[in-house]
Design a protein that fits this description.
Strands 3, 5, 6, 9, 10, 17 and 18 form a 7-stranded mixed sheet that branches. The protein has a 6-stranded parallel sheet with strand order 13-12-11-14-15-16, sandwiched between helices. Helix 6 packs parallel to helix 7. By secondary structure, the protein is α/β, with parallel strands linked by helices. The longest helix is centred in the C-terminal third of the chain and has 13 residues, at about 320-330. It has helices at about 40-50, 160, 170-180, 195-205, 220-225, 235-245, 265-275, 300-305, 320-330, 350-355; strands at about 1-10, 15-20, 30-40, 55-60, 65-70, 80-85, 125, 130, 140-145, 150, 185-190, 210-215, 230-235, 255-260, 275-285, 305-310, 340-345, 365. It binds nicotinamide-adenine-dinucleotide and zinc ion (2 copies). One zinc ion (ZN) binds near residues 94, 96, 97 and 106.
Length: about 375
């Protein structure tokens, strides 16, 4: 069948919309009709070449849709099921999945190659075989994906909101709740309020943090953070540092969660300085794979027993945490509607990313047309 999709051919070039060919689902695979796709900064890292992916690649790794057809051996979902995709597949049996660490499932090894297990490329077109971002490629009307990337959700959930739980929400929420392990009474600083950071704010607040300090140079972001659980908001790390020192009587924050669009040593150092003894610095934002974004005085890390941790998909287990987080949306404890700034058609995907880079959106969402 045919599918219209947003493709990156060359780093630094505009994303192109193209009609491509899609093969049917084989063993363990499903055909999904994507209804919605979120605009996350990580796709821009691929388009800009920060994350070196195999090209051409159909972008998009935050997606929701409806299962149309399943291949042989598929047990996790059935035709008609509403699903949210996880940007990391989970096999369920590798040593990481088996020990409750699905976000580092061995199947994640090829998310930037974009093929399905067995170097299988269901998408082909004028330039040969096309990979799919994170093995899902949600900026496409249809996709053929592994059943390990699809999580069944309640039929009555609005997919236009639930889509955010494919990346931004669990990544941000889990960065606070799981990786920083925020506890009641904590002081938590969140650097960068995009689709990821706003959910770190929501997660920290829900976990019981007393002070949630949001740092973002943009006024609209700070306002949204204050609306959704931050207790303080600052434009610069320096202002935040002063306030944190004061509000903790010099003890420093318990955790700093770094969710800026492009991670650098300056923000890592700011987070490191903001946390006190025993404090945790969580690196969620990305940069070029080998860029040295951490330049810290190790002796202070030791003497103050600080730690610096990476967080992937918020250290969530998609099979459990996607439905769990959606349950919190249903109960009103987590806000999704309020964090979607604008919707776009697939043809407007470049405009959507221009808006993201200009800081206009907390989250933008592509609404697919069929
Ligand atoms: N680790 C993971 O699993 C994972 C998953 C998804 C996204 N990411 C990464 O997380 C980062 C955030 O993604 P997003 O979609 O929320 O991006 P975004 O562009 O929507 O938001 C980033 C925000 O950071 C702010 N910012 C930039 N520099 C800053 C600074 N020095 N101090 C404070 N704020 C600053 C921007 O104004 C913006 O509001 C990206 O690097 C993305 O690739 C990581
Ligand atoms: Zn993402
Ligand atoms: Zn696994």
């Amino acid at each position: 069948m045919k599918t219209r999709a947003a493709v990156v051919y060359e780093p630094g070039k505009r994303i192109e919309i193209e009609e491509l060919d899609l093969d049917g689902p084989r063993e363990g695979e499903v055909l999904i009709r994507y209804t919605h796709a979120g605009l996350c900064h990580s796709d821009i890292h691929v388009a800009h070449g920060d994350l070196e992916a195999r090209l051409p690649m159909v972008l998009g790794h935050e997606g929701a849709g409806i299962i149309e057809e399943v291949g042989p051996g598929v047990t996790r979902v059935a035709p008609g099921d509403h699903v949210v995709c996880s940007f990391i597949p989970n096999c369920g049996v590798c040593r990481y999945c088996a020990t409750g660490r699905q976000s580092i499932c061995d199947m994640g090894a090829t998310i930037l190659e974009g093929y399905l297990p067995g170097e299988r490329f269901p998408i082909t077109g004028p330039r040969g075989q096309y990979g799919a971002m994170c093995m899902i490629g949600t900026f496409s009307q249809y996709g053929v994906i592994s059943q390990t990337s699809a999580i069944k959700v309640d039929d009555d959930l609005p997919l236009d909101k639930a889509v955010l739980v494919g990346c931004g929400v669990p990544t941000g929420w889990g960065s606070a709740v799981n990786t920083a392990n925020v506890a009641p009474g904590d002081t938590v600083a969140v650097y960068g309020v995009g689709g990821i950071g706003i959910n770190a704010v929501q997660g920290a607040r829900y976990a019981g943090a007393k002070n949630v300090i949001a740092i973002d140079p943009l006024e609209n972001k700070r306002e949204k953070a204050m609306e959704l659980g931050a207790t303080h908001a600052f434009a610069t790390a320096a202002e935040a540092q002063e306030a944190i020192t004061e509000m903790t009587r010099g003890q420093g924050a318990d955790s700093a969660i770094l969710t800026v669009g492009l991670m650098d040593a300056e923000v890592v150092t700011a987070g490191f300085n903001a946390v006190g003894k025993g404090g945790v610095v969580v690196l969620t934002g990305l940069n070029k794979v080998m860029a040295p974004t951490i330049q810290l005085p190790g002796t202070i890390l030791t003497l103050f027993r600080k730690s610096v941790k990476g967080s992937l998909f918020g250290d969530c287990n998609p099979t459990v945490d996607i439905p769990k987080i959606l349950g919190l949306y249903q109960s009103g404890d987590l806000k999704l509607d309020e964090i979607i700034t604008r919707t776009y058609t697939l043809d407007e995907v470049n405009e959507g990313y221009d808006d993201l880079l200009a800081g206009k959106n907390v989250r933008g969402v592509v609404v697919h047309e069929h």
